[in-house]
Design brief:
Elements (H helix, E strand, L loop, with lengths): L1 H4 L1 H28 L3 H18 L8 E3 L4 H10 L2 H25 L1 H7 L2 H23 L3 H17 L4 H4 L1 H15 L6 H5 L15 H7 L2 H20 L4 H23 L4 E3 L2 H9 L4 H14 L3 H8 L3 H25 L7 H15 L4 E3 L2 E3 L1 H20 L1
Antiparallel strand pairs: 1-2, 3-4
C-alpha cells in the first residue's frame, strides 16, 4: 500500500506530465490546421485514450492523439459542406474501424498475422520513424544551434542518470532547457499565450451527415488501419509483448474506433495511436499503461485551460526538432531491432526484396490516389510488402 501511494505514484504522475508535453503539440496542431477547436481535440484525445485502455484491458502503453491523415479531407468537407458534416464523416470513419475489428475477430488473427510476417511488420515500424524524420529536420533547421543543444541535453541526462527518475525524464528536461535557451535568444512568440483565455469550457459541437461528406472522409479509415497495425506492432516490440494477440488487434481497433466515433459526436478530431509515443517509450524506459492514462487525464484537464495549452504549443520548432531527432530515430531503431530479434534472414531473396521495396516506397514519399482517397506512403509500402510476400511464398511452395 505504501508503494502504491509513495514514490511509484509520484513517478507515474511526473512521467505522465512528460508524455503530455510530447503529445500536446501534435494534438493542438491538427485542430489549428483544420479549424476545429483545440480544446475539444484535447478533450476527445484524453477521453479516447481512457476508452482505448478500458477496451484493451489496460495492457497497452498507448496514447491516442489527433490524426494527421484526416487533415486534407476534413478541410475539404468543411469548405464544401460545413464543419459539422466533417464531424459526421469522422463518426462513420470510427464505425468502419468497428467493422474491421469485427471482421478480424470473425476470420481470426492468425490469418491477418500471416499477411504481416516479421519482415513486413518490422519494416513498417522502421518506416514510421523514417517517414517522420523530415518533420524533425524541418523543425531543427529553423535553428540548428538550439536543436542540437536540446538533443545534447536529452542525451546527457539519459546517459548520466540511466536508472534514476532524472534519466526517465530526459525528454521533459530537454524541452525545458531548450525552451529557456530559445527565450534568451528571442525564438519564442508568446502572443498566442497572452491572447488565450485562462479558463474556458470546450466548444463542443455535433455531427451532421451527408453521403457526399461521408465518402470523402470515412474511407481514410481503411488507410489508417494499416498505420494502426504498424503502431501496435511497434509498441509491442518496444515492451517485448505481442499486443496483436493479447489483448488482440480486434480490441485495439475497437478502442480506436469508438474513440474516433465519440470524437466526431463531440466535434473533435479523429484519433489515432500516437506514433511519437513509441519513441518516448524507447527513450524513457517507462512503459506502464498507467502513465499514459495519467497523460489522458491531464489532456482532459488541459482542455479547460486554453492558456496552458498554448504555453505547450509555443515550444519553439527547433526545440521540438531537436528532441524529435531522437524520438523518431528510436522508432526506426526499434524496427531494426525487430528484424534482428525475429532473426529475419536478409540473405534470403524474398526478405531482401520485401525490405528493399518497402523502404524505397515508404521513404520516397509515394502517394497514390484511388477513388478520391490518398493512400499514404506507409500504407502503400505495407500493401506492397504483403503482396511481395504472398507472391514469392507461393512461388517457393
Amino acid at each position: 500500500m505504501k508503494k502504491v501511494l509513495g514514490t511509484d505514484w509520484f513517478k507515474d504522475i511526473v512521467m505522465g506530465i512528460q508524455y503530455l508535453f510530447v503529445a500536446a503539440g501534435a494534438t493542438i496542431l491538427v485542430p489549428i490546421l483544420t479549424g476545429i477547436p483545440a480544446s475539444v481535440c484535447l478533450f476527445t484525445a484524453g477521453i479516447g485514450t481512457l476508452i482505448f485502455h478500458l477496451i484493451t484491458k489496460g495492457k497497452i502503453p498507448v496514447l491516442l492523439s489527433s490524426s494527421f491523415a484526416f487533415i486534407a479531407p476534413i478541410v475539404l468537407v468543411s469548405e464544401m459542406y460545413g464543419q459539422q458534416y466533417a464531424f459526421g464523416g469522422i463518426v462513420i470513419a470510427g464505425i468502419i474501424y468497428l467493422l474491421l475489428s469485427l471482421l478480424i475477430h470473425i476470420i481470426g488473427l492468425e490469418r491477418i498475422i500471416k499477411l504481416f510476417p516479421p519482415v513486413v511488420s518490422s519494416t513498417m515500424v522502421i518506416l514510421i520513424g523514417l517517414i517522420l524524420a523530415p518533420t524533425a529536420i524541418q523543425n531543427a533547421s529553423v535553428n540548428w544551434g538550439i536543436a542540437l543543444f536540446t538533443l545534447a541535453v536529452g542525451l546527457f541526462i539519459k546517459y548520466k542518470f540511466p536508472d534514476r527518475i532524472f534519466g526517465a525524464l530526459s525528454i521533459l528536461f530537454a524541452l525545458i532547457f531548450g525552451t529557456i535557451i530559445s527565450y534568451i535568444f528571442g525564438f519564442i512568440d508568446i502572443n498566442t499565450v497572452r491572447e488565450a483565455k485562462l479558463f474556458g469550457v470546450p466548444n463542443f459541437s455535433y455531427p451532421l451527415f451527408s453521403a457526399s461528406s461521408i465518402m470523402i472522409i470515412a474511407p481514410v479509415a481503411i488507410v489508417t488501419f494499416l498505420e494502426h497495425f504498424a503502431d501496435i506492432s511497434a509498441v509491442g516490440r518496444v515492451v517485448d509483448k505481442n499486443f496483436l494477440k493479447d489483448p488482440g488487434v480486434h480490441r485495439t481497433l475497437l478502442g480506436d474506433g469508438i474513440a474516433t466515433a465519440i470524437a466526431g459526436c463531440l466535434g473533435g478530431c479523429p484519433n489515432t495511436t500516437y506514433s511519437e509515443n513509441i519513441g518516448a517509450l524507447e527513450i524513457t524506459g517507462v512503459k506502464k499503461p498507467i502513465t499514459l492514462q495519467i497523460t489522458a487525464i491531464l489532456l482532459i484537464i488541459l482542455s479547460f485551460f486554453p492558456k496552458l495549452a498554448m504555453v505547450i504549443h509555443s515550444i519553439p520548432a527547433p526545440v521540438i526538432g531537436g528532441i524529435s531527432i531522437l524520438l523518431f530515430g528510436m522508432i526506426a531503431s526499434s524496427g531494426i531491432k525487430g528484424l534482428v530479434s525475429e532473426k529475419v534472414d536478409l540473405s534470403d531473396y524474398k526478405n531482401m526484396s520485401i525490405v528493399s521495396a518497402m523502404l524505397v516506397i515508404g521513404v520516397g514519399g509515394t502517394v497514390i490516389n484511388l477513388f478520391g482517397i490518398d493512400f499514404s506512403s506507409l500504407a502503400i509500402a505495407a500493401l506492397v510488402g504483403v503482396f511481395i510476400n504472398l507472391l514469392l511464398t507461393k512461388k517457393t511452395n
